[in-house]
Amino acid sequence: MALFGFFKNTQNPNELSFWGHIDALRGHLFRSSIAVVAIAITLFCFPQFLFDTIIFGPIHQDFLTYRAFCKLSYLLELGDQLCFGNYTFKLQALGLADQFTSQMWIAFIGGIVLGSPYILFEIWKFIKPALKEKERKGATGFIISASFLFIFGVFFSYFIIVPLTINFLGNYKVSELIENQFTMDSYISTVTTLSFATGLVFELPVLVFFLTKFGILTPQFMQKYRKHAVVVILIAAAVITPSPDVTSQMLVAFPLYFLYEASIFVSHYVVKKKAKQA
Fold first, then answer.
1. Domain edges within the chain
2. How far apart are CA 166 and CA 85, in angstroms?
3. What pTM was estimated for this model as a whole?
4. Residue 27's CB: how many other CB atoms inside 10 A?
5. Any alpha helices (H) in the chain, and if so which ranges?
6. Residue 3's pLDDT band (boundaries 50, 70, 90)?
């Protein structure tokens, strides 16, 4: 079968043609969209929970992360250096429809995040016909691992990266004459972009799995450039957490480095498995 079965095999009349696969893809996308919309509508019906508890949670002084950081600060005998969460800035909606459109957008993002396992399941069903029988057996592992990594990345960003970023940018002032008043759209964009982007970054082991499987990437290459990767990770951590506090930067850098090492392990696993099958 050609890649993803896009070209009809004349020796196999049961194989779908190019347009047949396009039609099949449309079905998978339609079912995924229905799942996302259904979850989004459900979330839309609970605006207080969606905003006061979830979206605006990181600006509440009793947020879980702030309490945990403060306890860690005293445990490490740092005093109150890691105690933060006291924000004085105000959020405001400037447009007439801003609050309504923001509610729709957040509900939609929530639908994607919560519906990601089903979306990945539909993606797998689409590519499964192009795979061998042994490769199909990994469907469950792929769906579970990819879903877990994405959702874990979102949670990591929400509880670690987002609070650290808000702490720095929300309290940053070039002059005491200027009062911080941010738009609701600006705040929501920061929270959703960081969370969604981090979720995608945490898919690195899955990406490495497929790149190694297709022969594009090797574990030797990743090991060779490990030092370069460490530098990139430290720079990324400094950008993600603009606070000059080294502790907060390390809290972001260590998980990213762990992801890189885990990806090397995954690449080694794929190479050994391919060698056994050869």
1. 14-202, 204-278
2. 9
3. 0.78
4. 12
5. 18-44, 47-48, 64-75, 98-127, 133-136, 139-156, 162-171, 184-201, 204-213, 219-224, 226-240, 246-277
6. very low
